[in-house]
Amino acid sequence: MDFEPNTKLGRYEIRRKIGAGGMGEVYLAEDTRLERKVALKILPADVAQNAERMRRFEQEARAASSLNHPNIAHIYEIGESDGVNFIAMEYVEGVSLDEKIAARPLPVSEIIEIGVQVADALDEAHSQGIVHRDIKSQNVMLTKRGRVKVLDFGLAKISTQIEEAGSEADTRVKTQPGVVMGTVSYMSPEQALGRETDARTDIWSFGVVLYEMATGRLPFQGESLTETIDKITHAQPEAIARFNYDVSPELEVIIKKALRKKREERYQSAQDILVDLQSLAKEMDLTEHSIAPSLREGIGEISIKSGTNEHAAKPTSDIAATNEAGAHTTSSAEYLFGEAKRHK
Questions:
Q1: Residue 336 per-residue DSSP state
Q2: pLDDT exceeds cutoff 90 at 64
Q3: Which residues contact 176 (CB under 8 A, 6 or more apart)?
Q4: ∠ CA 107-111-117 to the nearest 5 degrees?
Q5: What angle is formed at CA 114 by the lines to CA 108 and CA 118, rounded to 5 degrees?
Q6: Side-chain half-sphere of 177: how many Cα atoms within 13 Å?
């Protein structure tokens, strides 16, 4: 059911249809009480009549509304008007990441800047037990100021990792294993095979987005659904250098680690990949400033927005830390920098 412009749903007045998310159509609307634009996600009537899918719709609102982060689109409310169920959320003006990529590689500075902000958003969500499960370039918006906004937690689920045993959430909001959801080309092997997923499935999908930014193409894509899933589960992506010589070995290794078939071998948290991307950005910035001004022409600046990290990344077992004797443990990023320099 499509809604015509000026249709009213409670305090919201429809302006136009702007797309479709994981669980319904999305409209630009006006909040007549607060006089602001919002995005309204409408739950189809046939879904609203399905008790299980209705619980998932409500789950999305409860989970996503708990997130308060500059790189995550905010959820304002869940409502119902004249039998129509909807979620009112932040309307983000700008361009989607897939539109920006437009089948062309992005500059390395932009890949890292965007990557840091997406990783920070995932770190915040995962820290609250929320898994997106549909990370893709279409769900990443870029504002006019360069701020990243991750959209559509329409397939989010509360991770059982931090749920208390026997809690109401544990019994009501689990997504059933075997239900394949999300966009296939961005799916992790376990998700494509309909197996249980956790935060590491977002790490894989994020790796696909990084690869897409670096090459202008998807790492796993076949002529059919079956062929695509086969490539996701068995094939290795083509070398990034084939499509973009500007990508450093350090960044390529970060992307490859995010795309490991076995989730035990991937980055184990969004914080880990966030720290490595931040370390790479700092290393590139130091390298640039060590070059004589006369040689800097044509080198893009890295400008990680200071406002993107609301909380400092904590050291992890994979990132620089001190051991019991006080010795320095080399981070994966530092190791990569050293190896790359040694082979130059």
A1: H
A2: no
A3: none
A4: 145
A5: 140
A6: 7
| Structure tokens given for 252 | 């390529």
Which residue in 160, 158, 155, 112 sits closest to 136, CA to CA?
155
Q: How far apart are alpha carbons 259 and 167 in whole angstroms?
A: 33
Q: What is the CA radius of gyration of the chain?
A: 21
Half-sphere exposure at residue 309, Cβ-oriented, CA atoms within 13 angstroms: 16
For 70, the 3-state DSSP assignment is coil
Element (H, E) at 88: strand 84-90
Mean of the per-residue pLDDT values of the chain? 78
Domains in the chain: ranges and CATH: 8-90 (3.30.200.20), 95-163+172-315 (1.10.510.10)
Q: Which of 120, 134, 152, 318 is catalytic?
A: 134
Q: Summarize pLDDT for 183-220 with one digit per residue, the tens.
A: 899 999 999 998 999 999 999 999 999 999 999 999 99
Residue 117 burial by Cβ neighbours in a 10 Å radius (0-12, 13-18, 19+): buried
Q: Is the pLDDT of residue 147 over 80?
A: yes
pLDDT band at 287 (very low <50, low <70, confident <90, very high): low
pTM assigned to the model? 0.76
Please indicate whether residue 134 is annotated as part of the active site. yes
Pairing of strands 84-90, 321-322: unpaired
CA–CA separation, 267 and 255 (whole Å): 10
Which pairs from 191-198 meet CB under 8 Å and 24+ separation? 191/133, 192/229, 192/232, 192/233, 193/229, 193/233, 197/131, 197/133, 198/131, 198/159, 198/161, 198/263
- Whether 338 shows a pLDDT value over 70: the answer reads no
